[in-house]
C-alpha cells in the first residue's frame, strides 16, 4: 500500500512539473530524496518513462482536434494550417533530437547532479523575470501559431536543446525561447506543448527499446499495475496543469514561475550542500 501512495505522489509531481516551467527534474530530485520506491532500478527507470508518457498523452487528448489535420470538422484551409503546424513542430524538434542522441549518455554522466539542477533552476528563473520585464511594453510578433516563422521555430528548437541539461525544464527553455523570438505567452506555451509530443515520445521510445534490449521485460502483474497507476495519475494531473497554465497566462505573466524557480533552486542547493558537508564531517 505504501508503494502505491509513493507511485501516486510521483505521478502527481510529474503531471504538474512537466508542463509548468518549473523543472520536473528539480522537483523529482527532491521528492525522491524522501520518497524512494522500494523496487529495483530497472522498474524505477521504466516508471520514469511511463509517467512521462502519461504526461504527453494529456497534450494529445486536450489538443486532439487542433492537432488533427484530417478532422472532418475543419475546412481545407484549417487542415492546411494544421499540416503546416506539424511541419514547424518537426523542424523545431530536430536540434534537440540530434544533440540528445549524440550526447545523452554524456549529459547523464556529467550533469545529472543536484548542483547543476540548482544552478539551472536559478539561472532560468532569473531569465523569466528579466525577459518578462523587457517584454512588458512590447507587442508580440506572433499572437497565433500560424504566425510563427520557420526562423522563429528553429530558434525555439535551439532553446529546447538547452533543456537537455537537468533542471532547465523543457517547457521553461522553450517558453523562454518563444518569448525572446516574439511569440505571445499563449503561443509560446501551446507550441511548447506540441513540441513535447515528438521529443518526449521519441526520448521515451528510445529508453524503452534500450531497456528491453539490455534487460528484457520481466515485470510481474503488481509492477505492471503500478506502472499503469503512475501513468494514469500523471495523465490526469497533466490535464489539470495544462488547463491551469493556459488560463493563468491569459491575465498574468511568467514571473511568478521565475521567482518559484529561484526559491526551489536555493532549497536544492542548500539541502544537498548541507548533506555533503555532514557526510564529509562524518567521514
Properties at a glance:
283 residues, mainly alpha, 11 helices
SSE order, one letter for each helix or strand: HHHHHHHHHHH
**Shape by Cα distribution:** globular
Strand content: under 5%
User: Which structural class fits the helix and strand makeup?
Assistant: mainly alpha
Q: How many distinct beta strands?
A: 0
What is Rg?
Answer: 19 Å
Quaternary structure type? single chain
Largest sheet: none
Q: How many domains make up the coordinates?
A: 1
Poorly predicted runs: none
Number of helices: 11
End-to-end gap: 36 Å
Round the mean pLDDT to the nearest integer and report it.
91
Helix content: over 70%
Describe this structure in words.
The protein contains eleven helices and no strands. The chain is an all-alpha fold and 283 residues long. It has one domain (2-282). The longest helix is centred in the N-terminal third of the chain and has 36 residues, at 76-111.
Amino acid at each position: 500500500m505504501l508503494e502505491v501512495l509513493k507511485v501516486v505522489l510521483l505521478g502527481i509531481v510529474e503531471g504538474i512539473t512537466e508542463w509548468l516551467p518549473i523543472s520536473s527534474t528539480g522537483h523529482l530530485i527532491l521528492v525522491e530524496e524522501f520518497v524512494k520506491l522500494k523496487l529495483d532500478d530497472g522498474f524505477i527507470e521504466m516508471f520514469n518513462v511511463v509517467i512521462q508518457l502519461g504526461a504527453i498523452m494529456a497534450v494529445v487528448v486536450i489538443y486532439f482536434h487542433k492537432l488533427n489535420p484530417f478532422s472532418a470538422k475543419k475546412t481545407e484551409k484549417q487542415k492546411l494550417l494544421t499540416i503546416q503546424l506539424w511541419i514547424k513542430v518537426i523542424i523545431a524538434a530536430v536540434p534537440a533530437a540530434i544533440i540528445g542522441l549524440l550526447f545523452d549518455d554524456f549529459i547523464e554522466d556529467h550533469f545529472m547532479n543536484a548542483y547543476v539542477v540548482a544552478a539551472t533552476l536559478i539561472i532560468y528563473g532569473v531569465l523569466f523575470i528579466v525577459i518578462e520585464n523587457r517584454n512588458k511594453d512590447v507587442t508580440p510578433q506572433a499572437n497565433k501559431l500560424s504566425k510563427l516563422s520557420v526562423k522563429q521555430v528553429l530558434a525555439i528548437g535551439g532553446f529546447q536543446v538547452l533543456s537537455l541539461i537537468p533542471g532547465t525544464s523543457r517547457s521553461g527553455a522553450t517558453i523562454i525561447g518563444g518569448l525572446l523570438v516574439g511569440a505571445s505567452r499563449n503561443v509560446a506555451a501551446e507550441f511548447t506543448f506540441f513540441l513535447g509530443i515528438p521529443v518526449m515520445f521519441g526520448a521515451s521510445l528510445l529508453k524503452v527499446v534500450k531497456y528491453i534490449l539490455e534487460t528484457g521485460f520481466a515485470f510481474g502483474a503488481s509492477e505492471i499495475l503500478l506502472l499503469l497507476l503512475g501513468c494514469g495519475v500523471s495523465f490526469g494531473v497533466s490535464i489539470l496543469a495544462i488547463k491551469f497554465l493556459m488560463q493563468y497566462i491569459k491575465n498574468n505573466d511568467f514571473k511568478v514561475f521565475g521567482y518559484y524557480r529561484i526559491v526551489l533552486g536555493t532549497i536544492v542547493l542548500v539541502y544537498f550542500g548541507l548533506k555533503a558537508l555532514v557526510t564529509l564531517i562524518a567521514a
